[in-house]
Amino acid sequence: MKITLASLCKQGGREYNQDFVAGTVTGNEACLVVCDGLGSYVGSEVASSLCATKIVETYEQVRADDHDRAFMPETVREYVHAAHNYVAEYKERTPEIKSSCTTVACFVTDGNKTVIGHIGDTRIYLFRAGKLAFQTKDHSLSQVAVDMGYIKLRDIRTHKDQNKLTRVLGNDYYIEPDCETEFAPLTAGDAVILCTDGFWEYVYEEEMEADLLSSATPEEALNKMETRLLSRVGKFNDNYSAIVAKIAAED
User: Structure pTM?
Assistant: First the structure.
């Protein structure tokens, strides 16, 4: 089994790109990260890049020192916490970006077990047998409205509080990421998408399913999804980023 992937990180219609994508893949092992710096806070593009690169760097260090520990849920929490501390320490030395913060979504797998950790509304989707099997739950006021039964999950995309987050990384207080553990081994045909709200707001889950099923490669699937997005966005659309990973049998 091997993991193949494609990614994009686009500025959209904004003045700056505050998204950041990072990852490393070795055979059936991977650490994939997507971050979305909060647009209304100066320097959030720095927070997102520091966060993503620190998680991948920490994963690689742990994997080299203690391979099995690199894929444990508590270790993934450590990756995210290390990234938070790294961002916070950088902000202390750089007061002009003291308000900066970011979302984060990370996917860590050794092929047999998978750990998903996230803060904010950058999402992770897992597709199995051609269907959506799992998606992360946003940390937003819109998600609270869903949980209370006021709106349906699909309506988050157009809800007035969609961009009001209840949890971010790099601010003055730290809340642990939500972590989900999947102990079923990844198998050929499985797929994973990590994406910012600027992406999933315009590409629906059933369309992700269709594009994954009709595509031979992650690049082809991602191109189809981006085409959908570009047909729907306005002039000043948000930054949009995504990683599409497919699980394939060894050649």
Answer: 0.96
